Amino acid sequence: MYQLLSAKPSPYARKVRIQLAEKGIPFDLITEVPWNSDTQTPRWNPLEKLPVLICPDGSSVFESRLINEWIEARHPEPALMPADMDARFAVKRIEVICDGACDALILQLFENARPEDHRSQPWIDRQRRKVDGALRELARVVGDRGFCVGDRFTLADVATGTLLGYLKVRWPHLDWPQQYPNLAAFSERIEQRPSFAGSRPTTQVISDRVV
Fold first, then answer.
1. Domain ranges of the chain
2. What is the pTM of this model?
3. Is the peptide bond before 51 cis (omega within 30 degrees of 0)?
4. Cα(101)–Cα(97) distance, rounded to whole angstroms?
5. Cα 63 to Cα 50: distance, rounded to the nearest angstrom
6. With bands split at pLDDT 50, 70 and 90, how would you rate the model's confidence at 206?
7. What pLDDT was estimated at residue 58?
8. Closest CA to 63 of 22, 137, 10
9. Of 65, 86, 109, 145, which is the most exposed, with the fewest CB atoms less than 10 Å away?
């Protein structure tokens, strides 16, 4: 059986959890705080980042998009990537946008953890612009359609849904649902899927000093 090293609020780990659930693949979930000194993450990923998929043979796969691709190659049914090349690249484009927005949100999170007189407002503003740009583009791509790409559920929907779910947990004060009501409707709809409902993010406490 697979094991998945995961952090409770992580949108990256949630993508893998959702993919495994959608495919009906059993796995053991191991919750970690990768910033804490007692984490086992470095044992499995030299970059010390989550998520990490630990295989039955003791090998590991890390970085969420690589894990998603790896699972898709080894467990192709039900397919969460289109066979058509243009549609496949459309899915990957959305994955890049969503991961980039999540990266920018996390950079803001740690910048805001600094003492106020040590924070860089220009840096924070730059990360906010990335998130704003990502949401604007996702709103355009999603429009009023049921799915992000084509007429069925793909990893693009997984990426978009997990980004929006992360915003709800870590950045509840942001007004993106009012600014992009179609994304808010998309989020409400996709969170009803069992794979999403069973993996809703929650916050974790980082006990060790990070910044």
1. 2-74, 85-197
2. 0.94
3. yes
4. 6
5. 7
6. low
7. 96
8. 10
9. 86
